Amino acid sequence: MNVDRFSLPLSRPLATASGTIDERTGFVVRYDHRGETGVGEATPLPGWTESVADCESALDRASEAASTGGHTGALLALDAGEVPAARHGFATALLDADARADGVPLYRWFDSERRCERVPVNATVGDSPPAETAGAVERAAESGFECCKVKVGSRSVADDVTRLRAVRDRVGDGVTLRADANGAWSREEARRAFELFADLGVAYVEQPLPADDLTGHAALRGGPVGVALDESLVDRRVDAVLKTDAADVLILKPMVLGGPGNAHTLAMRARERGVEPVVTTTVDAVVARLAALHVAAAIPNVSPCGLATGDRLAADLAADPSRVVDGEMAVPQDTGLGVDSSEVRTDA
Ligand SMILES: O=C(O)CCC(=O)c1ccccc1C(=O)O
Ligand SMILES: [Mg+2]
């Protein structure tokens, strides 16, 4: 196993109610398996995953474990609850090698019957004043996005309503709007926001309440605005979320869930329970974005996913083979992830 550190600045930082993301530091993982070199990416996001330091030491331990116990030893050394980003990095490299060895794009390694050329995606719009928010959604709509997710919760509910009204006034009813409060509201604020957002045609709000408040989320359901849970899934709490009927939608971030395989399994489990999966990145470099894209591509009729985050990075690890056209991302049909490990550079 080979591990290389990278650090990439964002050209367009993402402002959210739980802070602004302005750079991404992580590790490229390479692993030789079945005659192929697979590539993976571990890009921790503190608050969501382990720290960069804990990710690095977990990858060190996994590398040790791999030298005696092979890929099984490495996977056993990487706990999805403790070090999800490190596990994502290694698991992605292993899956990339497996899919290459089997001669299929990664999404077909999850479901060999499937063919999927494109995945619908949402534009992601950060917190900013009303005119800027409306401008960002308008530009996204003009470039073909039919679904836009707007960050809320940094301001008062009344101010967020003003922002979303400015958006509706600017783009009309043709664009599906979602909001993401990143856990910022009290139950009372959330109740008020759901009432007012209904008139603005907001499809769902991601994480209206703090992660632990599953009862509160369950009580917000049933109206025109859906409840999507994201932070509530951190630390392997998916079972609790499903059991308490707390969500209409699960936001599945492979980096937070310990890898693409875990995310795919949870997506299928959600579907069986009548809960819609939406796959998103944690604003990652190209390797992890592709891994998330393949997870989404393996889900039939997936709802627009939060994968269009690549243009926020000022630099990347390799050229991105997927492009967003008319609100859809092209799925690479080459074997594995669709980027060759030799093209991935951490020294650029
Ligand atoms: O879902 C999207 O549109 C993009 C991803 C995103 O918003 C995000 C990115 C990094 C960390 C947290 C989040 C989030 O969904 O809360
Ligand atoms: Mg979210």
Radius of gyration over alpha carbons? 19 Å
Q: Fill in the CATH topology of the largest domain.
A: TIM Barrel
What's the average pLDDT? 97
Strand-residue proportion: 15-25%
Strand segment count: 13
Which CATH class of the largest domain applies here? Answer: Alpha Beta
Q: Helix amount, in percent? A: 25-40%
Overall shape: globular
Which strands sit side by side, in order, in the main sheet? 5-6-7-8-9-10-11
* H-E string: EEEHHHEEHEHEHEHEHEHHEHEE
Category by helix and strand content: alpha/beta
Helix tally equals 11
Q: Judging by the overall fold, what is the CATH architecture of the largest domain? A: Alpha-Beta Barrel
Q: Which stretches are low in confidence, meaning pLDDT under 50 for 5 or more residues running?
A: none
Give a summary of the structure in a few sentences.
With 348 residues, the chain is an alpha/beta fold. It is 38% helix and 22% strand. It folds into 2 domains: 2-103, Enolase-like, domain 1, CATH 3.30.390; 118-341, TIM Barrel.
Report on this model:
This protein is α/β, with parallel strands linked by helices and 348 residues long. The chain has 2 domains: 2-103, Enolase-like, domain 1; 118-341, TIM Barrel (Alpha-Beta Barrel). Helix content is 38%, strand content 22%. The protein is built from 11 helices and 13 strands. It has helices at residues 52-77, 84-102, 106-110, 130-142, 157-171, 187-199, 214-220, 238-243, 254-257, 260-272, 286-297; strands at residues 2-16, 19-33, 36-42, 118-120, 123-125, 147-151, 176-180, 202-206, 226-229, 249-252, 276-279, 324-325, 328-330. The protein has a 7-stranded parallel sheet. A 3-stranded antiparallel sheet has the order 1-2-3. A 3-stranded antiparallel sheet has the order 4-13-12, covered by helices on one side. Strand 1 and strand 2 form a beta hairpin. Helix 1 crosses helix 2 and helix 4 (130-142) packs parallel to helix 5 (157-171). The longest helix is centred in the N-terminal third of the chain and has 26 residues, at 52-77. The chain is globular, with a radius of gyration of 19 Å. The two termini are 21 Å apart. The model has no long low-confidence stretch (mean pLDDT 97). Magnesium ion binds next to loops.
